[in-house]
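Exercise 3.2. Students should predict the tertiary structure of the chain below and write it as structure tokens, then compare their answer with the key that follows.

Predict this chain's 3D structure.
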Amino acid sequence: MPTQLQTRPASTTALGYAACALAGTLWGTGFYFGKIALTEMSVGHMVFYRFLFATLGMLPPILIKPRRPGLNRKEWGILLLASFLGIPVQFLLQFYGLSLTTVSHAALMVGTMPVILAVGATIFMHERLDWKGWLALAGSTAGVALITLSGTHGRTPHGPSLAGDMLVVLSLVLALGWVLLNRHLMYGHSALVVTAYGILSGMVMLTIWVALEDGPPPVHGISGRVWFALIASGLLCTAATTFLWNWGIHHVPASRAGVFLNIEPALGSILGVELLGDRLGPGAWLGGGLIIAAAIVLTTTGHTEPEVILE
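Answer key:
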């Protein structure tokens, strides 16, 4: 299909920002629901059920309005690589990290994502960071150090741990590949196609992985509270957020959309403290503030992309 360059309407821009904001809000509940599910099942089984419900959530729009994906061989390769990095690898690593640390610490680690995106854009897309960007990068790094070195690491069985915090950060580095590859595909394909087929292919890979490592997932003996957490994780924190984010960044500059990623660490840490009884020491609060401030600087200053969309 031929592409044409056109000015982005103001209403579409507003909807794009709203989609990114809602995605960030829903993502902010992901670790909370994940921690609930981990009380009764392994990491592999929890992630499996999360994506099982996410896959079910993506079926209605595909069945109601069937469409061919329209991907060529190279694009299928890109989609499969993105799905592999973004689903089995990233999520298993991230939630194994969560099992070793607290919801609040894991959520604050997610605040490094805009900085990781900025570094990735510098390396892979040849964008250049100005002095504010490098200052923000240094501040974010200092924030991570403060969080991981503060508090009660290793003193309580259910407290934060350095290993858990670092595994969450490593999973975000891998997520960079998922973001950049999906963005490349959406220059020529709709957000629905990229999201739906990405989740479906990732679910196949995840099923094989979990079956070999953890065996069949449990069905009996799971409480209603955990089933609710799993369904919410799949439908709201995965299917809905992935579609909203993919649609949003297709209609607004990615450099501006990234600021809404800050909702996740802020809301996630609040849920951990208020609902799960997590405790954050002064160093962790200061570190979280540095991470979020760095993300805001990176996503609200400097050059932006042209205000155009590809249709």
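Discussion points: The chain is about 70% helix and 0% strand. The radius of gyration is 19 Å.
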